[in-house]
Amino acid sequence: MDDRDDWLTPETEELLAAIVGLRTTEEAGAFLRDLCTHREVIEMSHRWQIVRMLDDGLPYREISDKTGASTATVTRVAQWLNHGMGGYRLALDRMADSA
Fold it and tell me: How many Å from the N-terminal Cα to the C-terminal Cα in the chain?
C-alpha cells in the first residue's frame, strides 16, 4: 500500500460512500455538522477558501491576511493542491463546469 493510501481503510471507504450518497448541499451540511465539530467544519471551509484563492493566483501572504491562516497552512494546502491526489483540482474543475 502506498503511503498516500494508508488512510484508506474500510471505515473511511464507508464514510466516503455515505458522502457520495448525499444529494444536496443541505444534506451535506447536515451530515458534516453532525459528523464534525463546529471548529472542524470552519477549518475545512477555510482550507477550501485557501484552495480557491491559490487557484486564483493570489500570493500566499495575501491569502494568509485574508483568511487568518498561517503562511505554513497556506503552504501546506498549496502542496496538496499541486502534488496531492487531485481531489482539490477535481472539485475546482467540477465547480467551474457547473457555474
Answer: 37
**Would you state the cell numbers that stand for residue 24, as one nine-digit string?**
444536496
Which residues of the chain carry a pLDDT beneath 70?
Answer: 1-4
What's the gap between Cα 72 and its chain centre? 16
Provide the pLDDT for residue 3: 59
Angle of helix 25-35 relative to helix 10-20, nearest 10 degrees? 150
Residues 6+ apart with CB under 8 A from 88: 51, 80, 81
Picking from 6, 25, 9, the residue whose alpha carbon sits closest to that of residue 17 is 9
CA 82 from chain center: how many Å? Answer: 13
Q: Is residue 7 classed as helix, strand or coil in its secondary structure?
A: coil
